[in-house]
Amino acid sequence: MKHLYVVGLGPGGAEFMTGQAIQALSRAEVLCGYTVYIDLVRPLFPEKEVFTTPMTQELERCRRALELAQQGKTVAMVCSGDAGVYGMAGPILQMAPEFPDVEIEVVSGVSAALSGAAVLGAPLMHDFCVISLSDLLTPWEVIENRLECAAKGDFSICLYNPSSKKRAGYLARACEILLAHRSPQTVCGWVKNIGREGQESKVLSLEELKGETLDMFTTVFIGASSTQDICGRMVTPRGYERK
Amino acid sequence: MKHLYVVGLGPGGAEFMTGQAIQALSRAEVLCGYTVYIDLVRPLFPEKEVFTTPMTQELERCRRALELAQQGKTVAMVCSGDAGVYGMAGPILQMAPEFPDVEIEVVSGVSAALSGAAVLGAPLMHDFCVISLSDLLTPWEVIENRLECAAKGDFSICLYNPSSKKRAGYLARACEILLAHRSPQTVCGWVKNIGREGQESKVLSLEELKGETLDMFTTVFIGASSTQDICGRMVTPRGYERK
């Protein structure tokens, strides 16, 4: 059987990968992925054949990985974080019916929501939402409605892609929507370059978050109404103390 | 410095642990946790001292771990999945101010939302919510409101703790709330014993899900309106095809 692994690498360094992910990469003859992610794993497997494509060519990358597998190579498509959260597992499975001989295995990894949360404390300890602010693939009205619903549900919220050069001001707009439902003092946080060189993080209020200028390598966390700043850590209680 | 690691093990077997998690357990002199989770890691570290407590004694377990660290032992508190998603990172950080000499490090792992999603396909490829149906710690009205908001936001939804002996019928009530906003044909799925012996999974409609009897070792996934059943896999498109 021809085999294609879709592998989540976790946030960055090899220490964040699962044993299952390392095994999948070891078995693969070809590693496919976005150039930046391939560079993360290349030092571990310097002898492997690689196929890289730039950021915006996701579908071409997926098709090429499936074609290589179809030709009989064992292939691993690498993704940062988890393969199934804004990763390549989706588009590959959507194309799968065209490649019926290729067995596809999704290997999960630690997503930025989880690794970023660990840096800040425990902001996602209770029910939470994950929302991407990128409107490259999703109409802004859909994103706005989800922010509104997440705010009304008093979820902790993790925001991916808080901004980019073309989307300056999106984080401020998101904060505006949330401020209609939550206190300006709501405990928030952000983590930049999670698990990589130059990791930085900050715990701050929703009001302060609105004024921050963050880049696309930053993951943002917005607390629920119950979220606390405990000695500089962002913690959402689950409610054990009420038992 | 006295050190306490709060470590997410992932779904079960050692192959799902990150290198960082294995290193934390290796460094620890005492492993603390719920009996079932300690049994998962004990074969890897048969020589280590362990401290286990039953399911419901979470706060006692956390306090004991902090006390052991305070006394100078390097301690690892183990959690299944991710330490920060319905895990022990929250209660430990809430007690942390009483133990100022203990340095606490949260080590994230692959949560059931991510590992279960990988088994089913890619149901969480776009924005999603994670909601626990357990009302042991959360009033049912809060859970119901979150289900309602998640439905209105057209999020993919991952449900933890879909039922238990005392909470039969909760999953059906949750499905009822979602059916007010989503088609009975909405693609759903569940995974039982993720990454452990006896793993089972099923892709089914929301209408069918309503009639299922599932246990507390099962994680449930409810698709967004765009989620598809592609050759038996549950896939939520992100929208690359619209570019």
Automatic annotation (TrEMBL), chains A, B:
What EC number(s) does this enzyme carry? 2.1.1.131
Cleaved signal peptide residues: none
Q: Annotated pathway, please?
A: Cofactor biosynthesis; adenosylcobalamin biosynthesis
**Pfam families referenced in this protein's UniProt entry, alphabetically:** TP_methylase
Q: Where is the Tetrapyrrole methylase domain?
A: 3-209
Instruction: Name the keywords, alphabetized.
Output: Cobalamin biosynthesis, Methyltransferase, S-adenosyl-L-methionine, Transferase
Question: What is this protein identified as?
Answer: Precorrin-3B C(17)-methyltransferase
Organism this protein belongs to: Candidatus Ruthenibacterium merdavium
